[in-house]
Amino acid sequence: MDLKQLEYPMTQILAYRSPEGIVLGADSRAVHYLADGSTSYSAVPKLFRLSPHVLLTTAGAGYGIALCRAFQTHVEQKGLWQFTEICYQALPFFRSELERMRRSGLVAEGRPELARVYFVIAGRDLDRNRDPFQLQLLGSEQPGEPLHVIPNTGIFAIPRQLAVEMKLFRMQQTHQPVSRIAPVIKRFLLELARTSDTVGPPLHLVVIDRNGIRTDRFPPGRPAASSPVVTPE
Q1: Backbone angles phi, psi at 57, to 5 degrees
Q2: Is the peptide bond before 12 cis (omega within 30 degrees of 0)?
Q3: CB neighbours of 46 closer than 8 A, spacing ≥ 6?
Q4: Rounded Cα gap, residues 68 and 180, in angstroms
Q5: Which residue did the predictor score with more confidence, 9 or 221?
Q6: Which CATH class is domain 3-48+59-221?
Q7: Cα–Cα distance between 116 and 143 in angstroms, integer?
Q8: Which residues contact 56 (CB under 8 A, 6 or more apart)?
Q9: DSSP letters of 123-176?
């Protein structure tokens, strides 16, 4: 795969963590800004299962997809299983691969939006009896900024969506169960897909709890009208 073809911004991720479990929402749309100034879209996978209890996703620059696939292979080859050991290797792996891509000219220079890339590792830490469900957010948000761990409160959206983040924060404070969180995130994704050209199908709702990882794939609202949707074979 030509990594230069993956240099486009991508959205949307919404994450929620509680002692009971994790809920992740993600769309599948990638936005291509073409040389003639037009825009096209494609559907790409953004969810990568690393173990029965750990999931990886990405947002921001499209080359994050290629890095997720490479890390998924790395995890399989090393026989990694636990959340902690996967997170321990993730940051140096992604930093090394990003540096290799930059040296090889596979990351466009002079495009600030392509400097922003994020990775979310979500899962259950089987070594923890208390608060076993964990989220690690890695990001590089400025040109030349090293990828680093971004502290989080267990609720975040990429890109930011303050209204739904505040609603989820209030639900977190009142200890609402995951069963009530999931519909909120699902409705948010559906509305965003209906109103935004940059969020599109298929939409995914992921729940990680003591039963493992469950993914609900569901239809969006309208497709983007400004350009055709191109789905890879």
Answers
A1: -140, 170
A2: yes
A3: 10, 13, 26, 27, 28, 57, 58, 59, 65, 68, 204
A4: 30
A5: 9
A6: alpha beta
A7: 8
A8: 47, 48, 49, 50, 68, 71, 72, 119, 120, 121, 122
A9: EE-TT-SSS-EEEEEEEE-STTPPPEEEP--SEEEES--HHHHHHHHHHHHTT-
pLDDT band at 165 (very low <50, low <70, confident <90, very high): very high
Above 70 in pLDDT, residue 228?
no
pLDDT tens figures, 68-103: 999 999 999 999 999 999 999 999 999 999 988 888
Parse the chain into domains and list their residue ranges: 3-48+59-221
Query: Rounded CA gap, 126 and 132, in Å?
Result: 7
Mark out the alpha helices in the chain (DSSP H runs): 63-78, 83-103, 162-173, 178-195
Rg of the Cα trace of the chain?
Answer: 17
Please, what is the average pLDDT of the chain?
A: 86
Question: For residues 78 and 150, what is the distance between their CA atoms, to the nearest angstrom?
Answer: 25
> Between 219 and 162, where is the model more confident?
162
Parallel, antiparallel or unpaired: strands 9-10 and 39-43: unpaired
**Given a cut of 70, is residue 112 above it in pLDDT?**
no
**Number of neighbouring beta carbons within 10 Å of residue 3:** 16
Going from the C-alpha of 90 to that of each of 1, 109, 149, the distances in angstroms are: 22, 24, 10
Residue written as token pair 């509680």? 18
The Cα 103–Cα 90 span in angstroms is 20
In whole angstroms, give the CA distance from residue 141 to residue 138: 10
Work out the percent of the chain whose per-residue pLDDT is above 90.
64
pLDDT single digits (tens) 137-147: 999 988 778 99
